[in-house]
Amino acid sequence: MQVNWRRVAAAHNSFAVLSAACERAGWSLRPVSSPGRDVTCYSLNSINESRYRDEITEAEGITVVGGPHASACYREVAEYADYVIVGEGEYTLPRLLDEISAGNTGHIPGVATRDWFEPARTCVRLDAYPAFAEMKGYIEITRGCPFACGYCQTPQLFGRCMRHRSIDAVIRYANRHTQARFVTPNAFAYGSDGIHPRFDKVKKLLMHIDREIFFGTFPSEVRPEFICDESLALVTDYCANTKLHFGAQSGSDAVLSRLHRGHTVADAIEAAERCHDAGIMPVVDFIVGFPFETDEDQEQTVDAMKTIARTGTVHLHRFIPLPGTPLAGTHARSLMAATEKTCGALALGGKLTGSWNDPSVRFF
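RE: above sequence
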């Protein structure tokens, strides 16, 4: 049986991880640019899903769809896909392929069809699976997040209990390549419960990687309240990156409270100043257009962005109501003319990146 993996721009890491898991089970995922014979697998998010819906519906072979959108809206996706992977796929996808190959129904935990679904009974232990296959991927060192930010799918997909790949496993994969880059919702939370940092474990990890390390920067980030003299020293002592990426998300404490972010605007400003003092450029995420954002809230966010831009750069996006999140089903509010003017000026000055008018840009 031939198993194809549909190339999707936003799913490179998913391919790296799942192809490794499938290889262990004796299945090879063949990258394709259109549905192939036998079985074709897709990993979709809630922005690009509409682009592939008709293709999946019309595919002649068996289709398997996973990813954030499929997990959040599995009943909807099961109306046009043969099988939907709900949640993590390392264990479920190879088992489903075995079922399909044997001519069985595919009714296994973690898989939905149009008329059947049973949730997965377990979560993935990261050390039980390779970090990536022959196609290089970033090393996922942590999964899950203890916070419940209103716009974020991470805790809905992976749970609120942080799971970490062991230090020995991370070192083994990192030392295979000239550079070590990681996937994690909060790099400084490695080894911890996600609330109380364990910088001793972060240091133990970094000091044993014999490669150029990029930590707390793309494709991962950190949280502002984890930025302190001790954590910044880990970056300057062991890492190659001269930037640190973290999320402020709003310049309004009222908005941050409603989002359940778990930090204040002052925490974010202080974190940026600490980065600057340590010789590290802060790259700070903001989101505009939350449905409950008042004019005053938006003005405060603009003020915070201008403050950050004095010593760092701003990465800005328009709010997207993602399915499966507390803010699913809401709508982004419009931006004030003054907000758009300031964003344009900051962008022209090289101090702001992102898309505050078309939120889908970053997913294609």
